[in-house]
Write a structure and sequence with these properties.
mainly beta, 29 strands, about 325 residues
Length: about 325
């Protein structure tokens, strides 16, 4: 009898909890605000955002305009509305001269999403940090630095240097006049028309580089590396990722490749001038363009050759990967 009473009491508690849970639901409320701040001279923007997207674009000088869209998800409609009222009356935005800080004083929450659209003078510096939100920037002078957890990073037409780091997000940078440092865990990195030197690293994400003007240092564990239009110094390291490079190394340029099991394919014009050193432990070496053999080699897995005057140097070494010169 005691056991039956205990079971009945337990069943009643579970039933009551289910009824209460069914009556109390998450409530989502949304709102927005606009702010304009007068500035004089170069602006430094410091942005911190947990979950929302952040878009920064260049506008007229002398002012910073901020538009924010809020979405709050809490237990009960009254609580959600109260939270939005607090954001409107006391937004996470502050100004100290030409320093604009957004989001830094507001605690991050998985139940709150804020999307920002920020218009800044062209001669602005940007430092942005997000959790899962995307950061997009266009047309500012820089320098600029970005860091995300899983959010994507995109920047176009930046005059200064850029630093970009993400965990699982992707990085896309184009028309950058300064130097670029980019790192991604599992996300891909795409760089186009970078005038300064490039340092890029990924874990499993691929790397794509197009029309670089400066020196390149690129490394990846298992991601592939693809670079086109290369004519400056190049240093590439991969473990299992494949490497494809198209270009024409300039005089005194040095291309250096090291992989463990990744294949290496180099495409150069027939009129190129370079010395080619290739070595693999168990892979094959193929030359699909006319070359002149130089020196002696230790066997079929090593090649010393020259194309033209041989004023540039290209060295490739891999353990089990294949090497191809086209």
């Amino acid at each position: 009898m005691n056991s039956l009473k205990k079971f009945a009491l337990f069943a009643m508690i579970v039933f009551s909890a289910a009824v209460v849970a069914g009556c109390v639901r998450h409530s989502t409320s949304s709102g927005s605000l606009d702010r304009t701040y007068a500035v004089s001279g170069p602006v430094r923007l410091e942005l911190t955002n947990g979950n929302g997207e952040s878009k920064v674009v260049a506008g007229p000088p002398g002012e910073v305009r901020i538009h924010a869209d809020f979405r709050s998800r809490t237990w009960g409609a009254a609580s959600a509305q109260r939270r939005l009222s607090e954001l409107r009356s006391n937004p996470p935005i502050s100004q100290e001269g030409n320093l604009i800080q957004i989001g830094g004083s507001f605690p991050s929450s998985s139940t709150l999403t804020i999307d920002y659209t920020i218009i800044v003078p062209p001669d602005s510096q940007i430092h942005g940090t997000t959790g899962s939100g995307e950061i997009t920037t266009t047309g500012v002078e820089g320098p600029a630095s970005f860091k995300t957890g899983s959010g994507n990073i995109s920047a176009t037409s930046i005059k200064g240097d850029i630093q970009a780091r993400t965990g699982s997000g992707s990085i896309q940078l184009a028309s950058i006049q300064g130097q670029v440092e980019a790192a991604a865990g599992s996300g891909e990195v795409s760089l186009a028309d970078v005038r300064g030197d490039i340092r890029v690293q990924t874990g499993s994400g691929g790397i794509r580089i197009a029309q670089p003007a400066g020196a390149i240092v690129a490394s990846s564990s298992s991601g592939n590396i693809d670079a086109a239009g290369v004519n400056g110094d190049l240093r590439v390291r991969t473990v299992s990722g494949n490497v494809v490079v198209t270009g024409d190394p300039r005089i005194t340029t040095y291309w250096d490749f090291r992989t463990t099991s990744g294949n290496v394919i180099l495409q150069v014009p027939a009129a190129a001038n370079l010395r080619f050193y290739a070595k693999t432990t168990s892979g094959d070496i193929n030359a699909g363009i006319p070359i002149e053999m130089e020196g002696t080699t230790s066997g079929p897995h090593e090649l010393h050759a020259r194309i033209g005057d041989g004023k540039a140097r290209v060295a490739v070494e891999t353990s089990s990967g294949n090497i191809s010169l086209r």
